[in-house]
What we know:
Strand order of the largest sheet of chain D: 6-7-8-3-9-10
Largest sheet of chain B: 2 strands, antiparallel
Low-confidence stretches of chain D: none
Structural class of chain B: mainly alpha
CATH architecture of chain D: 3-Layer(aba) Sandwich
GO cellular component, one term (chain C): plasma membrane
Helix content of chain B: over 70%
Oligomer: heteropentamer
Number of strands of chain B: 2
InterPro entries (chain C): AAA+_ATPase (IPR003593), ABC_AA/LPS_Transport (IPR051120), ABC_transporter-like_ATP-bd (IPR003439), BCA_ABC_TP_C (IPR032823), P-loop_NTPase (IPR027417)
CATH superfamily of chain D: P-loop containing nucleotide triphosphate hydrolases
Strand content of chain D: 25-35%
CATH topology of chain D: Rossmann fold
Organism (chain C): Arthrobacter zhangbolii
Number of strands of chain D: 10
Keywords (chain C): ATP-binding, Nucleotide-binding, Transport
Strand content of chain B: under 5%
Radius of gyration of chain D: 17 Å
Helix content of chain D: 25-40%
Shape of chain B: globular
Low-confidence stretches of chain B: 1-17
CATH class of chain D: Alpha Beta
Bound molecules: adenosine-5'-triphosphate, magnesium ion
Domain ABC transporter (chain C): 4-236
Largest sheet of chain D: 6 strands, mixed
Distance between the termini of chain D: 33 Å
Radius of gyration of chain B: 20 Å
Number of domains of chain D: 1
Strand order of the largest sheet of chain B: 1-2
Largest interface: B-E, 50 and 45 residues
Mean pLDDT of chain B: 86
Order of helices and strands of chain B: HHHHHEEHHHHHHH
Amino acid sequence: xxxxxxxxxxxxxxxxxxxxxxxxxxxxxxxxxxxxxxxxxxxxxxxxxxxxxxxxxxxxxxxxxxxxxxxxxxxxxxxxxxxxxxxxxxxxxxxxxxxxxxxxxxxxxxxxxxxxxxxxxxxxxxxxxxxxxxxxxxxxxxxxxxxxxxxxxxxxxxxxxxxxxxxxxxxxxxxxxxxxxxxxxxxxxxxxxxxxxxxxxxxxxxxxxxxxxxxxxxxxxxxxxxxxxxxxxxxxxxxxxxxxxxxxxxxxxxxxxxxxxxxxxxxxxxxxxxxxxxxxxxxxxxxxxxxxxxxxxxxxxxxxxxxxxxxxxxxxxxxxxxxxxxxxxxxxxxxxxxxxxxxxxxxxxxxxxxxxxxxxxxxxxxxxxxxxxxxxxxxxxxxxxxxxx
Amino acid sequence: xxxxxxxxxxxxxxxxxxxxxxxxxxxxxxxxxxxxxxxxxxxxxxxxxxxxxxxxxxxxxxxxxxxxxxxxxxxxxxxxxxxxxxxxxxxxxxxxxxxxxxxxxxxxxxxxxxxxxxxxxxxxxxxxxxxxxxxxxxxxxxxxxxxxxxxxxxxxxxxxxxxxxxxxxxxxxxxxxxxxxxxxxxxxxxxxxxxxxxxxxxxxxxxxxxxxxxxxxxxxxxxxxxxxxxxxxxxxxxxxxxxxxxxxxxxxxxxxxxxxxxxxxxxxxxxxxxxxxxxxxxxxxxxxxxxxxxxxxxxxxxxxxxxxxxxxxxxxxxxxxxxxxxxxxxxxxx
Amino acid sequence: xxxxxxxxxxxxxxxxxxxxxxxxxxxxxxxxxxxxxxxxxxxxxxxxxxxxxxxxxxxxxxxxxxxxxxxxxxxxxxxxxxxxxxxxxxxxxxxxxxxxxxxxxxxxxxxxxxxxxxxxxxxxxxxxxxxxxxxxxxxxxxxxxxxxxxxxxxxxxxxxxxxxxxxxxxxxxxxxxxxxxxxxxxxxxxxxxxxxxxxxxxxxxxxxxxxxxxxxxxxxxxxxxxxxxxxxxxxxxxx
Amino acid sequence: xxxxxxxxxxxxxxxxxxxxxxxxxxxxxxxxxxxxxxxxxxxxxxxxxxxxxxxxxxxxxxxxxxxxxxxxxxxxxxxxxxxxxxxxxxxxxxxxxxxxxxxxxxxxxxxxxxxxxxxxxxxxxxxxxxxxxxxxxxxxxxxxxxxxxxxxxxxxxxxxxxxxxxxxxxxxxxxxxxxxxxxxxxxxxxxxxxxxxxxxxxxxxxxxxxxxxxxxxxxxxxxxxxxxxxxxxx
Amino acid sequence: xxxxxxxxxxxxxxxxxxxxxxxxxxxxxxxxxxxxxxxxxxxxxxxxxxxxxxxxxxxxxxxxxxxxxxxxxxxxxxxxxxxxxxxxxxxxxxxxxxxxxxxxxxxxxxxxxxxxxxxxxxxxxxxxxxxxxxxxxxxxxxxxxxxxxxxxxxxxxxxxxxxxxxxxxxxxxxxxxxxxxxxxxxxxxxxxxxxxxxxxxxxxxxxxxxxxxxxxxxxxxxxxxxxxxxxxxxxxxxxxxxxxxxxxxxxxxxxxxxxxxxxxxxxxxxxxxxxxxxxxxxxxxxxxxxxxxxxxxxxxxxxxxxxxxxxxxxxxxxxxxxxxxxxxxxxxxxxxxxxxxxxxxx
Lengths: 389, 334, 239, 234, 346
Ligand SMILES: Nc1ncnc2c1ncn2[C@@H]1O[C@H](COP(=O)(O)OP(=O)(O)OP(=O)(O)O)[C@@H](O)[C@H]1O
Ligand SMILES: Nc1ncnc2c1ncn2[C@@H]1O[C@H](COP(=O)(O)OP(=O)(O)OP(=O)(O)O)[C@@H](O)[C@H]1O
Ligand SMILES: [Mg+2]
Ligand SMILES: [Mg+2]
């Protein structure tokens, strides 16, 4: 690809490629993410574009991975040869993997908005960055949050049963959780796995989890299956203190409270999340919802953020040369993140955002509220929850 | 229709395979199941209460599987079509229920009843517009590709209309009851009942109506049927329509406990094939028993093989049965 | 010395004994006819001999070799070849290709196999259909094709299952002549037929089967005079 | 004429087999078609039965044009075909096959039709609970004819009903056909056993390469030197 | 008695003299030579699609051997593709084995797996849809197994590490290198050559005879199981090479990419669309199907004015693709090549 810019400051448009699953089973979230990225581009352009490039306008080219790794890869290649100087994407770990290799070979920076697998950044690729926390740090942070919440409410947690999806995502979140939890004195009474591709009833998994009388049931997985888990817990007599999602695809989704009904009440979720206490985030969400008629989920906010990261990189480097852009992103410190993070967005050696972290949400009054830590809280934590009945 | 090369036994099953009860087979499967479960209870090294919960959940899951498979067994058994759009049709019916409920504010079960004729019509159209010619050519690769295309088409059109965000419906009943200390979700019990009802209704249609007679005749010999005055194309369309109508019941009854996205039904397609072949092509009781059998096998199996492990077991048993009893549990030998 | 010997050979399908214990000796170069009512077990006998079906009991010797339980391809390679009552052409192939398939088993060289096949096709009188797709042949052509494929294997003994059925009388004559010439070449022939004129003209010995068993065996004239044969098979017109 | 073919052309895909073929059958007749293998006899009956479409010409039944009409509609109007391969419902019982034959008839007539068929072929009554595909060749042929009769045809077309049958059965079947005709059914029959067929026929056609070359009464043709030489092998 | 005019004599059957394999080899050479220049014509952005199309074509050629020429309809070719893909990725990452060698090892392994599966399916006389479903079930088992096997990294899949330099031995080039196109092109050429050779060989003729009528073939002395298995082994081996190349080109393989249902259908669709059981069918089919979804997506991204309103509707491109697929299957019953050939013959 020879479309990389010259580095002069007479550029008119800078192209960013966005690869997300716009069709297939993940089309729902993929579409939201694409819209998030689009809106970021529009906002930046409306605010005068990239100043250091003489007010250059951003342009977003979108690619549809269809949820398949090889399609994602060829879409990424297409976008780069059509002039993209940076990529954002892609939601799925395997697709992200392939896009990361394209980015590396083409020397184009790639900012991962969502993709959880630790492994992606373990390849030693220098062009790939990730904003969200990775799987193992979420597991670890989840355990820490749990302990802290227990201490704060005076309801110490001694044991947990863990239900998670099979595969890299679930396994690594669980492993990190377990390590940290055991360090903190929490026993894991049971690890129960299920297959994500064929899961239409969670009663057995939940009853197995409840059999050990754990203080809490921890859950990691995607939307449909976690919804099933919540419903199953809701239907069974138990005296656990809480259902606690860690990197759960469902529990902090805006559609979850309605879908789960009573079973969703007071369910907790430790996850990366848009910052509900940030006015900037609130403004973006409001405009998003008005524009697209759909609530802006966290994943979508991450795509927005990823475009901002690239824009900031362009601003810093004053060049649309991908390699200079890459260096600028690597050295970035982006204040006022839209996500509830522990500080500015800064990438470590491996490209991971070092200040990425999870916060705890809870379903209260049919809404997802941020409850922990205190600095991000929008509502009062209820713990132990009513799920023990 | 696909026929194995296995030599035929004389007068194997004098009854008609579409509705044959297969008492002996039922007893055999029942026996194996009871012995297997007894072994699990005695030697399984798990708490009995837990096993009971798995068993009950497995039975109820089996009911769902059976519901989805009942329509397929007609389509596969009579028309010989490997219908890859089964899962997509299931999703379609779920969205129809959703639309009826959210736009007209109908009670869920009323919506389900209204969906039945809609899907019947859909099935009728699909068969008469897309598949009839291929069915007559007795080709099996082309219908397979057409239904594959159809499945993609349905899923993506749903995506275009409804987007990919999860939807949900309100159910008038909820909660659960206790059976032998195990918890059984009311909606799933209703779905199970639905499966039995649909099976009974289909059996009645096949046994007692002249259309049922015609369907059986077409299944036995298409040309022969046309030579006694059966409008074969109409029977094809009717059969696909009936298959689709059963799918409507399935979709409607599982909607309350399923996350409604355009790909929601997909996970059932594969297992439905396993169940239909297991039960015997075109056998209504076979689909029912096969569904329950697979549901229990998968669920109880997951006590020892968690996650996808129990599915390997399911496919393993499937292949074994294909080898040892290719006509399926309830199929008469060809 | 007998070419083919059956000793107590039988075949059952489930509970049905399609072929009862049969003992039979066919000397080299005999022209041996079989008749019998529908369902008597004639085709079953052929299938057992040719290896399509494994016998339920008994022993079969061909050319001094025990062929009991042999598969069809092995039996054919040994020189015992059958044709089918319901014709089974390889429909995606031309007539010549059909026959070449068989002659490939005799000749490794593709050219030799082809030339041999072409000669056989001519011999059975299908030369004008040489390159026609076999699926479009009329009945008479298919019957000849069945014969041609069997002949291309240069068998020692050939089992013909109703090669004349479905042929109009005028079509029968050339096939009957062909069978005679095959026999004259030294091939032992065993055939099943319902067309009595041909049966009488061709058979040196005639076996009548009934419900899987031998009802009569002997010279054709003797056999058709047998009252039991008339009752079970021929009907009053022949009495 | 209850059945009339006028300059009918038909065939398979692009291959035309029948070339402007013309023939007719009077009510209450047995008419047979004889001819060489591949002459197109089966094709003719299949065109009449609606199993293949015609490209030219017309077929009329009871005065109505019926070419390119679906087989099931023809059955309803009384034109019933027994195909060469019998097309029985193999995994259904004999009785079910027969009942199915009366698919187009009012239910209350089934019993009396059955009685007639059983009269004609007592063996079917005896074996009514047997699966069709386990019956012997001749029995299956009787079942096929019996099933056709259940539809109470005005006109019955039969394709080689005696093929592969033992000599005594050939006689039986042909005899049955005469008796069927005697009940008022018109019969159009294709037969290899030309001499026996001609013996029971009122009229007959000789077919060659997809067209009619000779027609006459059964005995005329049976006596014709030309026919004897060409088709009877005498 | 009336005599009608004797009709015209039956037309003599059309002759179809043997057309040796030579003409087909020549044609193949011309086609491959012409395709050689494709990377010079295509824009960079289309090259990945071209490579993907070639991979489809190789799979389809492999599938067609077993299912088209051999008549054993496989609905589980993902098994062989996946075995090839994983063999490559695993041997490379675990032992640093060169992909060229892995292709051969993968092919041999896949042939072995194919032989085992086919042997049992054939032994138990599965045919038609039953055979298809059995192979499908095996593919599902492999899929589930690969998700559960630790040495294959479970659901994580295996990454092929990126090399700093181009390397022929390790089959890695610059992202836009034309070799990424030419190598599968040569593999495709070889696979086609194998098909042509096989179709005309004694073994291939036997296989086709068995497909048409196994009982008749056996009674003519053909060892049915042997020739069926030969066909299966070749088919699986070719498909595995496609899989190995996949791992090298995409540098990543996981259970879904290796054994997913869509992999099996990717092998079937081009062959059926092009013409099943024909030599050129899979090639033509792949050439049509491979770029189809891309073309539709392209059209919808930059729609002509009257279609402007469709822009950005997610799912539309796949829906259009699906509709076209249905139409092609229904209206070209013998596939594109099969239909053309039939027209020409008549
Ligand atoms: N594969 C099979 N399974 C069960 N029964 C069979 C099978 N093949 C043949 N039979 C039965 O075995 C008996 C003998 O059949 P066979 O085909 O040998 O008769 P045949 O003497 O050749 O009759 P025809 O003159 O009608 O050809 C029949 O009753 C038939 O129904
Ligand atoms: N399905 C078909 N496709 C192509 N050609 C066919 C088909 N069926 C028959 N034919 C051809 O049509 C011609 C007439 O066949 P038809 O069966 O009508 O003859 P027939 O007079 O009944 O002869 P037979 O005595 O052999 O039954 C033959 O040349 C035959 O090869
Ligand atoms: Mg016979
Ligand atoms: Mg005929």
